[in-house]
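Q: I'm building a small set of examples for a reading group on sequence design. Run inverse folding on the following structure and report the sequence directly after it, with nothing in between.
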């Protein structure tokens, strides 16, 4: 049987605290739909590194969102 090789990655799990309240505020008209949509779009798609030490990093950024949680990893 072939040996599976795994790479070392740094991982983070992010839970949006108060997400239920945000949805309630949306339903009540206290926040706009575009605000929530923008938030859920930006979290798994951060801006690319611009100069400094980060320009040398081989980031291989990966993200997966599930409901109000987000997992991210990089090498």
């Amino acid at each position: 049987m072939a040996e599976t090789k795994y790479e070392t990655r740094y991982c983070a799990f992010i839970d949006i605290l108060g997400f239920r309240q945000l949805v309630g505020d949306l339903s009540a008209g206290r926040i706009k739909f575009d605000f929530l949509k923008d938030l859920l779009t930006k979290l798994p798609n951060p801006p690319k590194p611009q100069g400094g030490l980060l320009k040398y990093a081989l980031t291989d950024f990966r993200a997966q969102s599930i409901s109000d949680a987000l997992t991210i990893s990089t090498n």
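The beta strands are 10-15, 62-66, 69-74.
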